[in-house]
């Protein structure tokens, strides 16, 4: 298990016990330069390369894109379009914007995710989001196939 | 134009089937808790100072994407809705402010609609003007006129920045768009009240979509009045920059003191240097040869173009031509860099000059070798047409040396302008400036004498009688060169005298305790001297004085304060006479390209003159106060040098207050003249 985790370059940590200082550092360092998805209190998600963090959980991401759920107006438009074409699913794109280098203050972070290749993560035994949960999340974010009404 | 920012990466495909996101919120949070306070974990290649430029999410000042609670992302403003003519006017004026804001904050190199040819945009604007004329009867006439002015402003602007046309055009046509712009902006200013603002058309939400800057930042608001003021200046500068095209002498390029907006300086650079062709018409060779001959070597055999055609490598003419080509190649880059530097902002100019003088210093060695190689073939070709060129004279080396000295002076003078030095350091820095200027004056004098001798030899060679004049071309070249040397001589001498006078004035003020060093618990005079002289540390010649020499020559401990003031008075008086002469030089004598450049040049000299007058007043005020103090000290101490540093209570008798002007408050930025007033 450990070997696989090392291969992945990502140390696993036991959540229930407090990690030691060394474990914690190795863990965070293993995330450096990986792609993170950071969810902010106002509902936005930022996807970028993890560069830096500190004791207040302020996170610096480079090459960042901001994602936002489509607005009610856009969803209504998309639903109308789907209805007129008798389609079962409603497609609406999230709005995205390139921001570059950003710092997200820890106090505004509600959730963090790391991106892994499905092929590797499946064997890693880390703490992947459960399938159900992931589906739920994907239905939350993957608005290309957002089912509405 | 290239975009400043690195290209955006493609947006991540967040629903790629091969990628999954793993929740690490809790693991991350508990890992963070083990860190000691203030600890940071980062990518080794990530410099923390970079994060200063990062956009802070949720900070309203930076993050234009923050939504208030319950605020919808959707824009309620309908761009297709009908507008009143007054509203269109209001929107156009607001746009104008936004555009000007781009120039003020230096957001450049962002071409809008780069995929559309400029001609199409102009056609569209012309169509709009035509349509406007058709509907003129239906709407208030003044509003239609106002709309027309705004459309015409845009056309004129596109014409003005189209440098491909401008560069090769020396007629007044190139100025035309700038002149139009200046007139139109005044109309627009007067018509502004007719418009009706439409603030909802400029909401934050709309701006969020525009993302014209990276990182996206909220709009900076500039008032209409401010924008108009900026535009007026912008257009005026644009008009003047075109004058550069009327190049006649290399010195006219150097007399430009451009300190307008960056955009204009960029246009200037482009006009000057694009494709290594200076000013679109002059090749680098012409420019260099012209500068060298004007500066040190009128009618020199070095520049004979017929030598280029001699192909036999053993022929002295071929040797001269090829050695001169090596010379040109060696100096071209540093020379053009110098002209480019003068187009930068002042801080950067100074910083670049500090490095650049090293380059010129190294140049001397190389040019010395080239000149050595030229001696023999020059003597050979001189046996015919160019008799009697002296082998002890090194014009090319002189040319490099004079340029280097002048740049070293600029470094010090820009230090005054940028207030690099503290009041108690002014004495030393003016002393150093005097030292440099005196070397330049002495060397210029030598060149002047040699030029006079060379002219005389030319007359002998042509077997001219006393009253005969030289062939007009030769005579003209000598005349221009002598005029040029006279201006340079005046400039160096004035700098020398005035710097000397101010250095001595500050010396007296320091001795009398009227200028005091601020407390510097960690500094020493020697270390500070080291720091101030750092730009000159590696210059081989003139080498900088050692700290001991410097201290001895600035403090002049064997000269009485009365004498210091007497010499200062004479030096300031001499500088004043010099600047008076400079003020009266006409356009040709001043090597100014046109009337505007000349009037600037005269204004600059007048400011210097005013500074010398103020300095004269300061010196005599101090002199009188000092004499009064010595008289009041009574017979017992008369005739004895007053050691002021130990008698601070006596210094109170001077009853003087000293003010050192802030940057921009004095008469001239390079001459910091203290103001002395008596207490009541």
From TrEMBL, chain A:
InterPro entries reported for this sequence = LSM_dom_sf, LSMD1_Sm, Sm_dom_euk/arc, snRNP_SmB/NAA38-like
Pfam families in the record: LSM (PF01423)
Where in the numbering of this chain does the Sm domain appear?
A: 26-114
Q: What's any one GO cellular component for it?
A: NatC complex
Q: What is this protein called?
A: Sm domain-containing protein
Q: Which organism is it from?
A: Xylaria flabelliformis
UniProtKB/TrEMBL annotation, chain B:
Span of domain NAA35-like TPR repeats: 256-584
What does the UniProt entry say about where the protein is found? Cytoplasm
Q: Boundaries of each NAA35-like N-terminal domain copy?
A: 37-99
Q: Which domain of life is it from?
A: Eukaryota
Q: Name one GO cellular component term.
A: NatC complex
InterPro entries found in the cross-reference section: NAA35-like_N, Naa35_N, TPR_NAA35
Q: What is its main location?
A: cytoplasm
Keywords of the record, alphabetical order, are: Cytoplasm
Q: Which residues cross the membrane?
A: none
Q: Cite a single Pfam family from the UniProt record.
A: Mak10
Family label: Belongs to the MAK10 family.
Name it: Mak10 subunit, NatC N(Alpha)-terminal acetyltransferase
